[in-house]
Each structure stands twice: as structure tokens, then as C-alpha cells.
From TrEMBL:
Domain GINS subunit, first and last residues per copy: 74-139
Entry function: The GINS complex plays an essential role in the initiation of DNA replication.
Localization of this protein: Nucleus
Organism: Acer yangbiense
Protein name (Swiss-Prot/TrEMBL): DNA replication complex GINS protein SLD5
Keyword Transcription attributed: no
Source taxonomy: Eukaryota, Viridiplantae, Streptophyta, Embryophyta, Tracheophyta
Tree of life domain: Eukaryota
Pfam families: Sld5
Gene Ontology cellular component list: GINS complex
Coiled coil: 42-69
UniProt record similarity statement: Belongs to the GINS4/SLD5 family.
GO biological process, one term: double-strand break repair via break-induced replication
PANTHER family hit by this protein: DNA REPLICATION COMPLEX GINS PROTEIN SLD5, SLD5 PROTEIN
Keyword list, A-Z: Coiled coil, DNA replication, Nucleus
């Protein structure tokens, strides 16, 4: 009986943790942690960001309605705290991605896989930045070159031959946590896989788990 009760309690706790981990606030926290710890830009969380924005708008309307109706200031302040937290998480998530775009825009733009991870506004931003930089380079430098350097003028600032474009370092070590009950990771130069139980934390090369982020593991 005691064993059955213990097993039931453990299962119930696991279900509760799973429920809490799937709320939009917790999902946004996880997306922010993953994006912040990953050296490269990750897939943009379209639906999550859309829901977060809708919830923030609803919370703003609720706080305004409470203030106008003379609701208890303590209650209003609690709702305002939730609103501030949601806004902070969303802005931080978008800011981290913007920093990566500014740093690796040329590398991302010439890589189809990475470019497809961007939202439509992010694609527009990167394209506009690249066009502006190419125009500035043309007007300030390339147009001043002699005629025998015309071939140089025709080269794109993001040409495949350009070896000066900053790239994210995928060989860096990161801390990851298993988000499932059991995960087996195939490590580099190792015959034995790394086996992780749920919530286990390990330090591994980013490139080993890059395709499992948000599915089997999350970064911490």
C-alpha cells in the first residue's frame, strides 16, 4: 500500500511539473534560456510569441479596467507584476535574437537553414541591414576604386568566398537538461552514449545536441 501510494504521488508530481512547464510563461522562459545559451540563432517561436502578445494585451486591458473601476490597489499591483514579468520575458527573448542577427547577419542570410528560422519581420530587418551596408560600402569605398578593380566592385559583401564573416562557434560547451524522462545522446569520439534521466544536467558540445533543443533537452 505504501509503495502504491508513493508511486501515485510521484506520478502526480510528474504530471503537475509537466503541466506547469507547458504554461506559456514557462514556455517563454525556456525559449529565452535556450536562445540565450545557444551560440547560433534558433527557430523563432511563432505561435508562442503570438499567444504571449495576445495575453499581454489582455492583461493590459484588465489592469486598466481595474484601475478605472477603483479595484483594491494591492490586487491591481499583483496583476501589474504579472504583466511586467510577461513583457520582460518577451522583450528579452526578442532582444537576444536581435543581438544575434546584428552579429551574424551575413552568415545567417547566406545559410538557407538558418534564414528559415527567422520570423518575417526579422528577415526584413536583416535584408534591410545588408542592403544598407552594401550601399554604404559601394558609395564610400568601392566606387572610389580604379577601373581595373571593377570585378571587386561586383563582388557581394556576403559572397561565398568571404572568410571574414563572423560565425557562431558550435564547438562550445553548453549545459543542457533533459526535458523527457530518458534521453540518449551520441557523443563525439565516444562509443558509449550519454544517458540522461529527466531533469539531469550535463555539459556537452553544442553541436551534439543542437537538433534536440526544445524536443529532448533544454539549455540551462
Amino acid at each position: 500500500m505504501a509503495d502504491d501510494f508513493g508511486e501515485g504521488s510521484t506520478a502526480g508530481m510528474d504530471d503537475y511539473e509537466t503541466l506547469m512547464a507547458t504554461t506559456d510563461v514557462e514556455l517563454l522562459k525556456t525559449a529565452l534560456r535556450n536562445e540565450k545559451a545557444a551560440p547560433e540563432i534558433l527557430q523563432f517561436q511563432v505561435q508562442l510569441v503570438k499567444r504571449a502578445r495576445e495575453q499581454i494585451q489582455l492583461m493590459e486591458e484588465t489592469v486598466e479596467e481595474f484601475e478605472q473601476s477603483g479595484m483594491d490597489p494591492l490586487t491591481v499591483s499583483l496583476y501589474q507584476m504579472d504583466l511586467d514579468r510577461a513583457q520582460f520575458l518577451l522583450r528579452s527573448y526578442l532582444r537576444i535574437r536581435l543581438q544575434k542577427l546584428e552579429k551574424y547577419m551575413f552568415y545567417i542570410w547566406k545559410n538557407d537553414s538558418l534564414r528559415n528560422r527567422l520570423s518575417e519581420p526579422e528577415k526584413i530587418f536583416v535584408k534591410r541591414c545588408i542592403d544598407d551596408m552594401e550601399k554604404h560600402l559601394e558609395e564610400t569605398v568601392l566606387s572610389k576604386l580604379p577601373d581595373n578593380y571593377q570585378s571587386t566592385r561586383r563582388q557581394s559583401i556576403i559572397s561565398e568566398e568571404d572568410d571574414m564573416v563572423p560565425e557562431p562557434q558550435l564547438d562550445t560547451f553548453v549545459a543542457c537538461k533533459s526535458s523527457n524522462r530518458f534521453v540518449s545522446l551520441r557523443l563525439v569520439d565516444s562509443e558509449r552514449p550519454l544517458e540522461m534521466q529527466r531533469h539531469d544536467v550535463s555539459f556537452v558540445l553544442y553541436k551534439v545536441i543542437k537538433d534536440k533543443i526544445g524536443v529532448d533537452v533544454d539549455l540551462v
